[in-house]
Recover the amino acids of this structure.
């Protein structure tokens, strides 16, 4: 059997690599696509519930309990990134990852002033209702909207096939 440096690296990291036959590789590929979509939906659901919990918390200790459970919602981001990157050829991965990072950076720039403004308004003297958790309710609504869009996307389109391999990082075209 021939082993290259990628095989050794994957084995060293403890990752499963199905190279023995095409059937397990195909099965694992389809499983990873299904698990990716499920992970996105589960992660977004947990995030919605976590944000609602933060907004409704009335004591400081509640945040720690919610934090432990809501941290599991973090599976949605990597799962979505994996599904997105599967539909793009290797020579375009940098552009896709750059675009995703740019969107995350923009959210990190725009989000805090919006959340701070909402918080300030809803704890101020002119507010119609005292609701300090409103920034978290907005975050829950945005996560819920993302979950609905993901559901719609998963229902409309079949799982994304792996993008065709065009060139390696060194520019070599793989044998057919």
């Amino acid at each position: 059997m021939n082993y290259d440096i990628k095989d050794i690296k994957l084995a060293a990291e403890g990752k499963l690599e199905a190279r023995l036959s095409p059937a397990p590789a195909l099965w694992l590929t389809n499983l990873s696509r299904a698990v990716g979509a499920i992970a996105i939906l589960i992660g977004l659901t947990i995030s919605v519930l976590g944000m609602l919990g933060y907004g409704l918390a009335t004591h400081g200790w509640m945040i720690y309990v919610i934090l432990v459970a809501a941290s599991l919602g973090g599976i949605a981001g990597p799962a979505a990134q994996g599904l997105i990157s599967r539909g793009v050829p290797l020579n375009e991965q940098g552009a896709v990852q750059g675009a995703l990072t740019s969107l995350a950076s923009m959210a990190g720039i725009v989000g805090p002033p919006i959340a701070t403004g909402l918080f300030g308004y809803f704890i101020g003297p002119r507010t119609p209702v005292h609701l300090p958790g409103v920034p978290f309710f907005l975050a829950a609504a945005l996560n819920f909207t993302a979950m609905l869009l993901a559901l719609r996307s998963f229902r409309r389109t079949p799982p994304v096939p792996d993008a065709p391999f065009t060139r390696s990082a060194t520019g070599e075209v793989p044998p057919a």
The chain has a mean pLDDT of 78. The chain has six helices and no strands. Helices lie at 5-12, 22-56, 60-70, 76-86, 93-123, 134-156.
